[in-house]
Amino acid sequence: MKTIDDFNFEGKKALIRVDFNVPLDGDFNVTDTSRIDAAKPTILKVLEDGGSAILMSHMGRPKGKANPEMSLSHIVETVSNVVGVQVKFAEDCVGTKAEEAVAALKSGEVLLLENLRFHAEEEAGDESFAEELSKHGDVYVNDAFGTAHRAHASTTIVAKFFPENKCFGYLLAKEIKAIDKVMETGEKPVTAILGGAKVSSKITIIENILDKVDNLIIGGGMTYTFVKAKGGKVGDSICEDDKMELALEILKQAEAKNVKVYLPVDVLAADDFSNTANTQFVEVNEIPDGWQGLDAGPKTLEIFKQVILASKTILWNGPVGVFEMENFAKGTIAVGNYIDEATQGGAFSLVGGGDSVAAVKQFGFQEKVSYVSTGGGAMLESLEGKTLPGIAAILG
Ligand code: AMP
Question: Could you tell me the pTM of the whole model?
Answer without folding.
Answer: 0.90
